[in-house]
Design brief:
Layout (H helix, E strand, L loop, with lengths): L29 H5 L12 E5 H6 L1 H6 L7 H10 L4 E5 L12 E2 L4 E2 L9 H16 L7 E2 H11 L2 H8 L6 H18 L7
Parallel strand pairs: 1-2
Antiparallel strand pairs: 2-5, 3-4
Bound molecules: iron/sulfur cluster.
The site of iron/sulfur cluster has 11 residues, from loops.
């Protein structure tokens, strides 16, 4: 993981709870699609593009509704307000990086901490790929945010988080200590719509 950053997300608290994983392999059903917010310009369901490791960077913001990150915070608020919004999980630039002041659009990399930690970008791409692989996601099949986070809770415990998803990140040892309460809080927050 990286820069944008785990240190924003290290203070969450929540409660362990249980819930099943719904149909996440294929495209959403007509009924589910009807429940999703539409893009006013196209009248098609809106789809957020989120890179794999940002699913985990967003946990505290999803659980608490608070984030000081200028581009991650608004995306998290949008998801909290519309838990059925579709998410397409990708490797590389997403709806959080693209508007961020630190994103270099020509080189397609994050400039933040580039001098001090030159491996951060490559490690973030590795975490993106790991997240997609571990979750068994198909990028061409966006899934509703609430289902995605229940899937994460079902498939990624603290050990998987630290040893398979974010294993390449220099901050993983910090983040793993708050991972489980954070994923529980995020799932709970997405169980019903919240005001923006
Ligand atoms: S460009 Fe992307 S990875 Fe870099 S700080 Fe901004 S949101 Fe985080």
């Amino acid at each position: 993981m990286n820069f944008c950053r785990r240190r924003e997300f290290l203070n969450a608290a929540s409660v362990l709870a249980g819930a099943g994983v719904l149909g996440w392999f294929g495209p959403p059903s007509d009924q589910a699609a009807a429940a999703q917010p539409a893009n006013p310009a196209t009248s098609k369901p809106e789809v957020l593009t989120i890179r794999g490791h940002h699913l985990f960077d967003m946990l505290e913001a999803l659980g608490t509704g608070k984030s000081s990150h200028k581009t991650l915070g608004p995306v998290a608020q949008k998801i909290r307000a519309n838990p059925k919004i579709l998410i397409k999980v990708v490797v590389g630039v997403d709806d959080i990086c693209a508007p961020c002041e630190w994103w270099d659009h020509q080189k397609s990399l994050c400039k933040r901490n580039l001098d001090k930690y030159p491996q951060d970008n490559e490690n973030s791409l590795t975490s993106d790929r790991n997240a997609i692989r571990v979750l068994g996601l198909k990028p061409e099949h966006p899934i509703p945010a609430d289902e995605l986070y229940r899937l994460i809770r079902a498939k990624v415990d603290k050990k998987v988080f630290a040893e398979q998803v974010c294993v390449a990140c220099r901050l993983v040892h910090q983040c793993k200590e708050t991972y489980e309460p954070n994923i529980e809080a995020a799932v709970k927050a997405l169980s019903s719509p919240r005001p923006q």
